[in-house]
TrEMBL record:
Source organism of this protein record: Cohaesibacter gelatinilyticus
Function description: May play a role in DNA repair. It seems to be involved in an RecBC-independent recombinational process of DNA repair. It may act with RecF and RecO.
Annotated transmembrane regions: none
NCBIfam families assigned: recR
Name the UniProt record assigns to this protein: Recombination protein RecR
């Protein structure tokens, strides 16, 4: 059994770093050692930034994005097209599209995908919030920017059914209500691919070549 080479505080830091995506025990040790060596330049500012994130970061009540204010910066940006809504699985997908600068629209974060095997149903996602937004009649097109996975496509089909049923009910009460166009990402997104790992060119092509969801 290997002997300890550092105190419990450092061991705890390494253990926590090892839980981050892309970091294993060895990488976590290297990162921890680098932070400690650069204590004043890195470790102290990082600790302060994490503390501020804990106290100030919150989930946007409108779209589900993560920001220090609610509604978030994106939802309060009047330069965006309020008639175009991009639906994504996670905040990382929203940030990926924003990083690529491919669309100037509002967003809606689902918080995951439908997965019966994992016990994730419609009530576990932000689908009711989406229906509340579409019922107002301000949205003209929804882009289902979900990942090209089985779970992602299952979720897209479910959302489409819900939106179509909602449109029928709204039109029954208000014949002038216009149905929302539903489109999906097209060329450039491979089957099984995830948005956060795609480059900006691929995302741009996927947005520009979107097709009606069927």
């Amino acid at each position: 059994m290997a002997n300890r080479v550092a105190g419990p505080e450092i061991e705890k830091l390494i253990q926590l770093l090892a839980k981050l995506p892309g970091l294993g025990p060895r990488s976590a040790r290297r990162v921890a050692l680098h932070l400690i060596k650069k204590k004043d330049q890195l470790l102290v500012p990082l600790a302060d930034a994490i503390n501020q994130a804990v106290t100030k970061v919150q989930i946007c009540e409108t779209c589900g994005n993560i920001d220090s204010a609610s509604p978030c910066t994106i939802c309060t940006d009047r330069r965006r097209d309020p008639a175009l809504l991009v639906v994504v699985e996670d905040v990382s997908d929203l940030w990926a599209l924003e990083r690529a600068g491919v669309v100037n629209a509002a967003y809606h974060v689902l918080g995951g995908t439908l997965s019966p095997l994992d016990g994730i149903g419609p009530d576990d996602l932000n689908i009711p919030g989406l229906l509340v937004r579409t019922a107002k009649g301000d949205i003209r097109e929804i882009i289902l920017a979900v990942n090209a996975t089985v779970e992602g496509q299952t979720t897209a089909h479910y959302i489409t059914d819900q939106l179509q049923n909602q449109a029928k009910d709204l039109q029954a009460d208000n014949p002038t209500f216009e149905r929302i166009r539903i489109s999906q990402l097209a060329h450039g997104v491979p089957i099984g691919g995830e948005l956060d790992y795609l480059d900006e060119g691929t995302l741009l092509q996927a947005i520009r070549s979107r097709t009606s969801f069927e």
